[in-house]
Amino acid sequence: MEGLNSLESKNIQELSKKLVVKAGSYILNNVNQLNHKNYKTNSDGNKEIVTQIDLDIHNNIEAEITKNFPNHNILSEEDIESFNYGFNDSVWIVDPLDGTSNFSNGLNVFGSSIAYIENYKTIFANIFIPSISSLKGDYIFWSEKTGMLLNNMEYKNSNQSNLSFVPGNLYTDYKESKNYLKSKYISKDFRNYGSMSYEGAMVALGKVRSMLSNNPKIWDVASLIGIFSGQNKSIYLRELGNKKNEWVYMESMEKIYKNIEKKSFRIGFDIIFMNE
To answer: Which of the 8 DSSP states describes residue 253?
Structure first.
């Protein structure tokens, strides 16, 4: 791994796992509490919901990373102003609580994502989601060396689903939904759960066939970019404004990390994550 020795790499890996489990536990401990809805201005200039839980998790993660790796750069959805733009050095990309609207209404469909990036590439990926089989929830870890692990155990799925996750606008714009359904990657049976981390994890685990997102922000997909570069998984990109509706297989993560818009942090592509 460029720029890292084996000990430092191991320490980063272990810290990333520790932080996402800690974040997930904190979310689960507070999901049935009264979580007051505040509003913030997001990177697009629009208003969106934020709770104290989002901010608590962000503050804890930032403090832990800074204590252990003071020279590393941090991009968190809850603090874009502090980020020194660039994805070639050591960068942590954090979405403390993805699915805040669900969470603030007591709905257990959300996730937490922490990715470590270096040289325009996701090196370590972590996603925490609630689980019907475990009160502690489930967490996914990925690296090139380990492949995808579920709760620290090797995980192999057999995808039998013909369900896809899509953005909400496909429900409201019939003409647009017809165009997408011409794609061989999107099934005719689709849903939207309001958390890309949760939805992406369901695809990674083989519960769902694919997930589509229109030009997402990098903290929504940084972990997924790593996970879906693994075995039996694929990423397809379509340039914005592509009138031919052409999807291209992503051969290198650099294509995304070198294309991120500096103000909004959107990746500049529509993207499909797929189990194949």
So the answer is: T
